[in-house]
Task: structure prediction
Amino acid sequence: MKKLNLWVTVAATLVIGSGLVFASDDEKGERGHKYEHSYYDVAPVNNAQYKEECGSCHMAFQPGFLPARSWDKLMSGLEDHFGESAEMDAVDQKVLTNYLKENAADHSNYKKSRSFNRSVARNAAPLRISEVRYFIKEHDELSRRMVQDNPEVKSFSKCEACHQSAEQGSYDEYQVYIPGYGRWDD
Ligand code: HEC
Ligand code: HEC
Result:
């Protein structure tokens, strides 16, 4: 009987132990282990109100691209939002701020969110995804002609112009298509 108990303990330890090994593999994803989510993904937007209110002028950006402190700052300055007014009533503003912060890059376990979050200094609160260091690094091979001077793109803010599955939260490098230039492969 004693012996059986011991084996149960050993078996349980092995099961729990291998769970821990998998968890830490996930952390070390860069080395080609399996990811909990695809390496290229951020959590898709799953809030209809956010999609409607924040997706009317541009794509509803996934909250997982900026840390919570950035969303706080952005949401408290909607009267001058990149030169436009994106004001809304106080209740909606509160609800959407909560949604953004709860799903922010520093609260997400998606690989891409962690990469974005890691590249923002702790005392910084950038308002643009396209100003985050990790973003700049990933896009540094693009020329002005492909982006700012490209009539079908114009700005890095227009993620979905090049990332065919941007709205679904997928930024797979194999699904990039630059309007007027074609498929991106490097
Ligand atoms: C009235 C139109 C309008 C609405 C509504 C609006 N935005 Fe914007 N937003 C803009 C403009 C204009 C820009 C700058 C785009 C550019 O530089 O090409 C922008 C840029 C942004 C950027 C920076 C994108 C980048 O370059 O990385 C973020 C983040 C953003 N908006 C979030 C939001 C959120 C969150 C909401 C909802 C609370 C919202 N926006 C609602 C007009 C709007
Ligand atoms: C002008 C086209 C264009 C626009 C606009 C654009 N991207 Fe990209 N993006 C690219 C290209 C090209 C790459 C690099 C693919 C590669 O070779 O790795 C890239 C890479 C990325 C990656 C890294 C993918 C990886 O390899 O891990 C992310 C994440 C990303 N973009 C997010 C965004 C977001 C978010 C926006 C909008 C705020 C945006 N991009 C706007 C073209 C664009």
